[in-house]
């Protein structure tokens, strides 16, 4: 696969991974390639394992597989090939509006997120980092956007920790549930809490919680 995928522009980046738009040489088509240094590839390999289990769900981003490459600086990288979301993230769409979204539109997106989340939980996983920026948009024939759940880098099995990075806090601060903060409990109820936060944000166009910035002395 490394010989047929050509990386293009940068789509986004996180603490560990970079995501590039990519093209398939012999067949054409656009893909998103998520890459990390091989020394940090364990989370990406976990993500690939989870997405393979969820391939039958139309509400979860599709994974075509992974491959290793040798980078120009001499480092090796692991790459995950995902379907490309032409519409970007649901977060970008929602927060571009000043007065929130109508109920019918919120219902449209929420229905797909709930179906995707049901598939994740049915397979025995907790996403642990549901947020609007991890909901990706794909065009439909009727001109609307279809949403799919993405970014399973922090996901885990129910009751088990081997699918997570060993962090005390797991997720995004203003989406974390009280029990995940106080007791480090990261189970299915955390995802439901995050879902509620997303619904509020779609209605209002504003973050559910505002995290105060404090200066350490």
TrEMBL record:
Annotated keywords: ATP-binding, Kinase, Nucleotide-binding, Serine/threonine-protein kinase, Transferase
UniProt cross-references to InterPro entries, sorted A to Z: Kinase-like_dom_sf, Plant_MAPKKK, Prot_kinase_dom, Protein_kinase_ATP_BS, Ser/Thr_kinase_AS
Superkingdom field: Eukaryota
Stretches assigned to the Protein kinase domain: 5-217
A molecular function GO annotation: protein serine/threonine kinase activity
Chain sites annotated for binding ATP: 34
Presence of the UniProt keyword rRNA-binding in the record: no
Homology family: Belongs to the protein kinase superfamily.
Protein name: Mitogen-activated protein kinase kinase kinase 17
